[in-house]
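Narrative of activities, Objective 1.

The group set out to show that a structural description can be obtained from nothing but a protein's sequence at a throughput compatible with the screening campaign. Below is one input-output pair from the validation batch, recorded exactly as produced.
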Amino acid sequence: MKKLWMAAVGAVALLASCTTETPTSGEPDTDGVITVWTLEDVQDRIDKTKGMAEAFAAQNDIEVEVVPIAEDQFDQVLTAAAAEGTLPDVVAALSLAGVQNLQVNELLNTEMSADVVETLEAETFSESALALTRDGDTQLGVPSDAWAQLLLYRTDLFEDAGLEPPTSWQALEAAASALNSDDVAGIVISTTPGDGFTQQSFEYLALPNGCELVDDSGEVTLDSAECVATFDLYNLLVTQSSVTGNQDVDTTRATYFAGKAAMVIWSSFILDELAGLRDDALPTCPECRQNPAFLAENTGVVGPLEGPSGETAGYGEVVSWAPTNDADPETADFIEYMMDDKYVDWLALAPEGKVPVRRGTAEEPTKFVDAWGNLEAGVDRPAPLSDLYSPDVIDTIVKGTESFDRWGLPQGQGALVGATLGELPVPKAVNDMVTGDLSPEEAAKQADADVQEIADSLN
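Output recorded for this entry:
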């Protein structure tokens, strides 16, 4: 999850540094081959994607070449292809920042993306997924699927303490304080500087409070009252209701899996591991020795969170099919095929991290979301998500895609978002704060100044 996101950011940074003119012709590629770069580079997913592509090729008498791109090679490969005029017809599973910034470099066929969405019918997509993949009225890519940032909590501990689910800032802070003890932390949350996971965790809490990276005019607003309040909440959670030392994607999961935390902020990628379906990330709580699914059975999830003003927002990463600006015209047919005929098979590559953003078809409005809940997750012991989690959990995750928001993208600041994700000034400010070097007010001012410096460098 984190490596893929950072690879896209790295590619953007390298592309932005090129001083030559964009070498692509802008004319349709008519070589009779649809070249698909996929960032789903796990071998099993590669094989299954190639199988889907072969089925399309056989039906349409055209060759489809699927090229997996390793996460740590994506930036170099993309930059070289852009310089040589050998971009693929389409990139699969491209992040929001990647899509936005490829548009800045004039590498996307936005007309094709818009045509595909229109053909599939925009009403069948999550509105927020479409909004996040647009720049104004321009549809940059075709939103494919998403992973959701979640607040996971121990329902058994909450019930024993008589606490309501932590669906709001107020309930979250109260529960973290009430459940924190020498044996169990109230919450574990990422604090490592220079880590995208800390950025994601902070933004998850910031969005429902109206804390934004920039306002509608593009002015950096991280020193706003709403952002200061978010830094303050983060500081309280970490310093008064959590464990000591820097926390990251691995340590937060390990602490929750050990039964040593009542809550954790993590992505939907945790769902298969939480249920004991992966040998390389097994729950280790005392109860888990007899029942590997204990934590899954005793975990509730909160997607979109309610802020102090009553506003609700969620954080998620939407990935897209991104056709390039000289794509073969039949690339549109291939994307439509993958988003319709083979959409359930595509989601099945990793359902815990591929939440559908297309709910169904005009004829069957919930076709894909219904199928998603029955897809098998896990590596070593695959099992349907619906066998592991309650209908409420499944429903929360699916409906959460309707409330996704992200810093800077709705304001048309894709280039700034990409640049800040490369330098990560907010995680640095968070770490300086929780280690006692800065107050929440000072952390907000530091983050604001650092982002403003990045913004100035882009002008």
